[in-house]
Amino acid sequence: MAATPVKKAGHGSVASRALASQRESYDWMRSKMTEFLSALCLIFVIEGSLYALFPEGMKRAMGMVLDQSAAQLRAVGLVAAVLGIAFLWLIRG
To answer: Are residues 93 and 62 in the same domain?
Structure first.
C-alpha cells in the first residue's frame, strides 16, 4: 500500500496566515518589552549617576524628604507622574 503524500501549508493557507499573525504579535510584544526594560535600565543609570556624582547632595535631599509630610510627598509624586505621562504623550504621539 502506497503512502499518501502529506499536503504542506502554502503561503496563502489559513495555517500560514495564523502563524504569521502569531509571529507578528510575538515580535510586537518583544519590542514593547525591550522598550520597557530599556526604560528601567535608564532609571538605574540616572539614579546611580546622581549618587556617584553627588553623594552629599543626595544625603541632603533624603534628609529633606524625611522632613516632608506624607501628603506633601504624595502630591509631589502625583505631579511628577502626571508630568511624566504628559511628556511621554507629547514625545511618543
So the answer is: yes
**Residue pLDDT, tens place only, 34-86:** 999 999 999 999 999 999 999 999 999 999 999 999 999 999 999 999 999 99
Direct distance between the N- and C-terminal alpha carbons of the chain, in angstroms, rounded to an integer: 64
Give the pLDDT of residue 22.
Answer: 83
Dihedral sign, CA of 72, 65, 38, 49?
positive
Segments of the chain assigned E as strands: none
Residue 49 belongs to a domain: yes
**What is the domain range of residue 39?**
15-53
Q: Are residues 92 and 62 in the same domain?
A: yes
How far, in Å, CA of 41 to CA of 35, rounded?
10
